[in-house]
Amino acid sequence: MPMVKSFTQAQWDAAARRLDALPEKPAHEHRVNVRDAMKSLQPQIVGAERKGYTQEEIVQQIAQDGVEISAATLRYAMKHAAIEDRSAQAERHATTNTDAALPRVKKASHARSSNTGNARTESQKKRDGAITRLESTPVKGFLGFPIRPDTENL
Questions:
Q1: Handedness of CA 127, 131, 133, 137 (dihedral sign)
Q2: What are the C-alpha distances in Å from 19 to residues 7, 13, 14, 31, 121?
Q3: What is d(CA 74, CA 63) in angstroms, rounded to the nearest whole number?
Q4: Band of the pLDDT at 33, cuts 50, 70, 90?
């Protein structure tokens, strides 16, 4: 049975102070993994490919500066950098279009709720003074399907 490790608050505080006291490393000594490097080198690599260089030739050029990776690693990293770039663009596109999409959703839900509101009688509307949900109207879920409480088999 694995044992859960626990430490005192004083130990955690001492570790935090030690990390805060570390000096800044020079930028040229920062380690960068291949995937992160491909994100920043992607325009240069695509530009070299447009100039007619193969991925093997690009790998040879990169190796002259001490970065030794295989062509397969380059392909893999470029593919994932492109996928991440597309997903980031789609996310930005979705957040910018969310504001424009909300009124449409409200209009559509308003149209649906007005249809369910027709079941109410005029006397109920006059008496309430405001539109409220009746107990008999089902609650609609995320995709518009009615959700009913499961109280029949109690």
A1: positive
A2: 17, 10, 9, 18, 69
A3: 12
A4: confident
Distance CA 49, CA 47 (A): 5
What count of Cα atoms within 13 Å lies in the side-chain half-sphere of residue 14?
5
Q: Count the helices and strands in the chain (H runs, E runs).
A: 5, 2
Helix (H) or strand (E) holding 27: none
Q: Residue 91: how many CA atoms within 13 Å on its side-chain side?
A: 6
**DSSP assignment letter at 9:** H
pTM exceeding the 0.70 threshold for the entire prediction: no
Evaluate whether 134 touches 120 at the Cβ level (below 8 Å): yes
Q: Is 109 helix (H, G, I), strand (E, B) or coil?
A: helix
Domain spans of the chain, in order of start = 31-98
Q: Give per-residue pLDDT as tens, 55-112.
A: 999 999 999 998 899 999 888 888 887 787 778 778 877 776 655 555 554 444 444 4
DSSP letter string, 55-75: HHHHHHHHHTTT----HHHHH
